[in-house]
Amino acid sequence: MNRLAARLHICLGRLQSLPSARRSSGAIDNAHDPALTTICVQSALPALAELTLLYLNFVTVARLERNPTIKDEIQARGFGRDIPAGFLCYPAAQAADITAFRATLVPVGEDQAPLIEQTNEIVRRLNRQAGREILPEATALIPQVGRLPGVDGRAKMSKSGGNAVPLSASDTEIAAAVQRMYTDPGHLRASDPGRVEGNVVFTYLDAFDPDREAVAALKAHYRRGGLGDSALKTRLTGVLRDLLGPIRERRAEIARDADHVMDVLRTGTARAKAITAETRDAVQDALGMFRF
């Protein structure tokens, strides 16, 4: 498994400070053991930029503009026709990130699936141009709950949108985020029947509550009436605290050793630099490009 600490993509939508060693510790947690995962810094891999530029010759502006993910982000950010070129070209950069590691399985939310599809289009065009398979196609690995809505009810949870529950959230912050969550606007009293569909609290319970039978019983109770929103939010708060508590503690433990974080990033980046350079060279050779 490879994990990029993206320092380039953050500049495509808005300028912000680049990740510090402390924030980079978020990439090293219970789910990303450096012994099993190559954790690297994107901007330190020049092959990615070279592949991105190359891939732009295998996709049209019209196709980039039709990408549903890009269309949604353009609308959400209010770009209109003043679209930064780098932002519009994000699918090509994403294709470079994926193909440089020859990834065949990419974990994404359902809103990112069009980027995987466009990556495969670029791969097929490149392979046809080369006359043989140079790069493999990738498959999107989408979880059961393919997209988490924001706590404010908007379609997508986003850290930049201020409607997310951070992995580093404290118990107090988790409770506050859950209290902000939309339920059923027509469920005015606990005795009223409520709608489960589109209810943000139930979406999160579906995603994170391990007791499926209990969640099913809560849904049935809510639909027939007699279950208040506060009871649902109390349950979800407990579920998220149990889930995020160990992650938060592990992250804090790692962040206390900045030297270890930097060592992991240096080792992973060196490994990734060799892998991505090898892929770049293979692509250039297959296309008959001169290099030395």
From TrEMBL:
Signal peptide: none annotated. It is an enzyme of class 6 (ligase). One of its GO terms (molecular function) is tryptophan-tRNA ligase activity. One of its GO terms (biological process) is tryptophanyl-tRNA aminoacylation. GO terms for cellular component: cytosol. Its EC number is 6.1.1.2. Keywords: Aminoacyl-tRNA synthetase, ATP-binding, Ligase, Nucleotide-binding, Protein biosynthesis. It catalyses: tRNA(Trp) + L-tryptophan + ATP = L-tryptophyl-tRNA(Trp) + AMP + diphosphate + H(+). The keyword Protein biosynthesis applies. SUPFAM superfamilies: Nucleotidylyl transferase. It comes from the Bacteria. InterPro entries: aa-tRNA-synth_Ic, Rossmann-like_a/b/a_fold, Trp-tRNA-ligase, Trp-tRNA_synthetase. Coiled coil: none annotated. Belongs to the class-I aminoacyl-tRNA synthetase family. This is tryptophan--tRNA ligase. It comes from Methylobacterium terricola.
